[in-house]
Amino acid sequence: xxxxxxxxxxxxxxxxxxxxxxxxxxxxxxxxxxxxxxxxxxxxxxxxxxxxxxxxxxxxxxxxxxxxxxxxxxxxxxxxxxxxxxxxxxxxxxxxxxxxxxxxxxxxxxxxxxxxxxxxxxxxxxxxxxxxxxxxxxxxxxxxxxxxxxxxxxxxxxxxxxxxxxxxxxxxxxxxxxxxxxxxxxxxxxxxxxxxxxxxxxxxxxxxxxxxxxxxxxxxxxxxxxxxxxxxxxxxxxxxxxxxxxxxxxxxxxxxxxxxxxxxxxxxxxxxxxxxxxxxxxxxxxxxxxxxxxxxxxxxxxxxxxxxxxxxxxxxxxxxxxxxxxxxxxxxxxxxxxxxxxxxxxxxxxxxxxxxxxxxxxxxxxxxxxxxxxxxxxxxxxxxxxxxxxxxxxxxxxxxxxxxxxxxxxxxxxxxxxxxxxxxxxxxxxxxxxxxx
Length: 437
Ligand SMILES: Nc1nc2c(ncn2[C@@H]2O[C@H](COP(=O)(O)OP(=O)(O)OP(=O)(O)O)[C@@H](O)[C@H]2O)c(=O)[nH]1
Fold this sequence. Notes:
By secondary structure, this protein is α/β, with parallel strands linked by helices. It folds into two domains: 34-69 and 334-431, GMP Synthetase, Chain A, domain 3 (2-Layer Sandwich), CATH 3.30.300.20; 143-325, Rossmann fold (3-Layer(aba) Sandwich). Helices cover 39% and strands 17% of the residues. It has helices at 8-14, 21-33, 79-85, 90-101, 108-129, 161-169, 216-228, 241-246, 250-261, 283-291, 312-322, 337-355, 360-363, 390-397, 402-419, and strands spanning 54-56, 147-155, 188-193, 196-202, 234-240, 268-274, 298-303, 324-325, 365-373, 379-387, 423-431. The strands form two sheets. Strands 2, 3, 4, 5, 6, 7 and 8 form a seven-stranded mixed β-sheet that branches. A hairpin with a 5-residue loop joins β9 (365-373) and β10 (379-387). The longest helix is centred in the first third of the chain and has 22 residues, at 108-129. The protein starts with 7 loop residues before the first helix and ends in a 6-residue tail after the last strand. Guanosine-5'-triphosphate binds next to α6.
């Protein structure tokens, strides 16, 4: 089920002080598949699922995914406190002095001086061990040196926005599939390289000609998307050039022309022809470039294949060069548990979209029910699909569990390769309980 999340939300978060990426990713991703909804638990659904409605990766033999990550390093000993504990017994010290210097040393003055020099040595050692205020760890960048860029990606459904984002960011941030409108929420992708950070925003629903759309929420979504695009530093207008050559979509042409006509001094715009790998005669690409060449707002034209990665390096390089001196909005991405949870949902969702070619994926409630990191470093991930109707459940399960099994096996493989560890994936398909009137 598609849920509307206003396009302004990620922009608003851009102006906030740094919040770990994971929290924001989850806050936008929480529509129907958040781990938070796990609390709703299986009470929403019939608990008696048929055995073929389950997938359990432990029933499939897979080679181990490599060495288990080492345990966290032990806390290093603090040499200052160790030194503080090293207070000699004075009588032992006197005996040592005698043995070394052949006479009994020092009166009261010597003792005081010795104690003072010991304190000075200790203070010096403490100061030496204290990291300087601006000491930066490896890869850290001072705030005043940081460069940032916010990028909105605009395009018709299925133009390849998610695939391109994934390729640029280098992690799986969005479910990619053959279906249109797979982006059920704005997915934030963050690329941090050297001193530069680029935040990518998906802008679902930004299309012209929305008059007459059946649902009011769709109209609201479209309007909200339009009103927010000017807030990005840079806009990528993306279209499927292969489709354009075969069956041009007048709405897409209008979109490209409208965004290319109005110059916005505060925003750079670029036009990206995507899926160039599908175009057999490359000369056709020049024809398309010519068709849109007189649009003043487009600073550059790129021909890319987001899926195959063609031309993406040049595009990323160009984006890096457009960054402005501004502190980063996001912590440089580390694979936190919250990001991993989101990825686990996205990967399973992607496999479901690949295998179920009806409206089913959009009406099914998909939840993360359990997430555990086991002692051996492996992960136990349990997700449930809750279908409104028995017939929908049956389509997702497939004959003798063949569909859910395939989804599970493929998702499990991919999660193992992303997380670089063993993943015990459990998927259950249930039917929602009928609410009594
Ligand atoms: N051959 C080819 N296929 C691509 C390319 N980019 C995307 N695709 C395919 O096009 C389909 C749609 O891609 P997505 O990235 O989901 O498109 P999207 O614009 O994010 O779609 P929505 O979420 O519906 O807005 C998927 O089947 C992709 O595999 C490309 O460069 N070449």
